């Protein structure tokens, strides 16, 4: 059976600001009179033709903003102000504010498999390494790893082999760690691995890799650059 797809589009009209006191003169654009060519004047906009420029208003054409013909132009008061030649109110919409010029739209699509034999998809838990700019200065170094979420019905445990490599060759012991915590406490998601370098010289300017591989499939899950800068070289 084909999946059932439900699509919902959400939008909203803008709200308004309410103030306890009536707006003062500083909240209004004090335009003494409507300009010549005015056809419609409101608190939040003015429409007309051949409108002049004004420092207290944004001036534009509806042909540009709305694709409308007829040579109609508009004034919009700057900021949250309103034109003063129309009666006041304590409910403030404002002039060229984002809620006046932008319409929010959210599209939600939900796909549901209605087949009786549909299987619940599962995945293995993600694992990352805490820290960054990994630099090893002693023969033995400890790394702290953490699973990214608790194991549950749809999130399965992950067993990893962890080691430091020079190309395809390991330069440390390779340890096996299993991440299977079901606890909601993130502190229970952490595991520490101790890796010991083999006894040889390492180029401090070369990048090595800390590699995490799926213990079952051998697939590389993640890798992190590591530098090795030992103060003393163990020749024994």
In short:
With 236 residues, this protein is mainly β.
Describe the structure.
The chain is mostly beta strands. The chain has 2 domains: 17-101, no CATH class; 123-228, CalX-beta domain (Immunoglobulin-like), CATH 2.60.40.2030. It has 2 helices and 21 strands. The chain has helices at residues 62-65, 98-101, and strands at residues 4-11, 17-18, 28-29, 38-41, 46-48, 57-61, 73-77, 82-83, 91-92, 105-112, 123-124, 127-129, 134-136, 140-147, 155-156, 158-166, 169-170, 175-179, 190-196, 207-214, 220-228. Strands 13, 16, 17, 18, 20 and 21 form a 6-stranded mixed β-sheet that branches. It has a 4-stranded antiparallel β-sheet with strand order 4-5-7-6. Strands 12-14-19 form a 3-stranded antiparallel β-sheet, with no helix packed on it. A hairpin with a 4-residue loop joins β4 and β5 (46-48). The longest helix has 4 residues, at 62-65. The radius of gyration is 33 Å and the shape is elongated. The termini are far apart. The mean pLDDT is 82.
């Amino acid at each position: 059976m084909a999946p059932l797809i439900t699509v919902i589009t959400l939008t909203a009209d803008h709200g308004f600001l309410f103030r306890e006191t009536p707006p003062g003169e500083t909240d209004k654009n004090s335009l003494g009179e409507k300009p010549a060519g005015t056809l419609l004047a409101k608190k939040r906009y003015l429409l007309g033709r051949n409108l002049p420029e004004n420092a207290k208003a944004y001036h534009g054409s509806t042909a540009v903003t709305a694709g409308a013909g007829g040579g109609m132009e508009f004034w919009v008061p700057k900021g949250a102000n309103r034109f003063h030649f129309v009666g006041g109110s304590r409910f403030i919409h404002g002039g060229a504010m984002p809620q006046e010029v932008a319409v929010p739209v959210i599209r939600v699509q939900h796909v549901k498999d209605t087949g009786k034999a549909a299987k619940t998809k599962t995945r293995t838990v993600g694992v990352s390494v805490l820290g960054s700019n990994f630099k090893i200065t002693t023969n033995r170094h400890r790394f702290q790893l953490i699973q990214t979420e608790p194991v549950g019905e749809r999130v399965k445990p992950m067993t990893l082999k962890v080691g430091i490599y020079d190309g395809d060759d390991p330069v440390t012991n390779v340890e096996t760690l299993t991440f299977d915590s079901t606890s909601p406490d993130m502190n229970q998601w952490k595991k520490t691995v101790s890796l010991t370098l083999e006894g040889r010289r390492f180029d401090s300017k070369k990048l090595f890799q800390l590699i995490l591989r799926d213990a079952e499939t051998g697939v590389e899950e993640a890798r992190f650059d590591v530098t090795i800068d030992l103060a003393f070289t163990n020749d024994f």
